[in-house]
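Page 47, continued from p. 46.
Same chain as before, 331 aa.
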Amino acid sequence: MGAAEWRGSAGSRSAATAVCGWCGMTERGRRRPGFEEDALAEAVEALGVLLEAGVAPESAWGYLAEDSSHPAIGRVARAVSAGERPGDALVLVSVRAGPAVRTVAAAWQVAEAAGAVLSPVLRGAGASLRDRAETAREVEAALSGPRATSRLMTVLPLVGLLMAAGLGIDVLGALTGSLIGWGLLVAGVGLTFAGRAWMSRLVRSATTRGPVAGVGLDLMGAALAGGLSVPGARRLIGEVRERSGLDTGDDHVLDRVLRIAERAGAPVADLLASASRQERRSARIEGRARAATLAVRLLLPLGVCVLPAFLVLGVAPVILAMVSSTVTGLR
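Result:
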């Protein structure tokens, strides 16, 4: 389908633009934590609304791409315009993308292959992506205080040196004029870089990674909603996961839910939906716990590296310069 076919009527374009409230996000917003997951969630939910309104999938991707904030949307739309089916286009794009895009690709393929309605599947994927974005923002919020303190402590030595120079104290001479001064300089710079590296490692350990919570349960629910049996749904999901490179990470939960449904004769779809919601809640709680722990753990590099670096670079050189000048004056 060509780009001209995407635009359709003016009314269709207006409806698509109204659905995509995320389209006008600023460059600053694009850099904020969780932006990509939020933008993709908005796009996926908008896509579901367009499909429910009767818009063809090929046209829906085109409408989204006209004002897309997420780079994957534009790439999928271009592949669709070149003749690829939407599911195949998503797979092509997801090869180099992260778990968020792979989740959408897998959800689309499973729903399409099983004959399930796409809209509920897309809404479930969007909810999972929003939870993931919220966790990323909470980690960033936990980091903001210690990060600001670290920046202040990094700048203070320079301020101290300038103030000492303004008072006529030769701090630079004290740092470079003796072995003790060079030792202070090397130790201060080393502590500063060590503190920054330590903080970066702590932040990376708290950052949300891995599969999107509950995606395996949602995929099974979509496959069963399309009329497949449990063995058939498992085969389909396995093929889709292998094709899209998706790691669901919740196979043990899925097995437990299916066993309970088989033994109790309970509706498996309801159990899957409940388990998926619980997985998302658990992931959100774990993310908040990581963020709270991070705020405390970041005090370690501040106390062990950043504060000593301030003392070594900002205080000790001034004392050394004053002692040196006093000794020189006595001679």
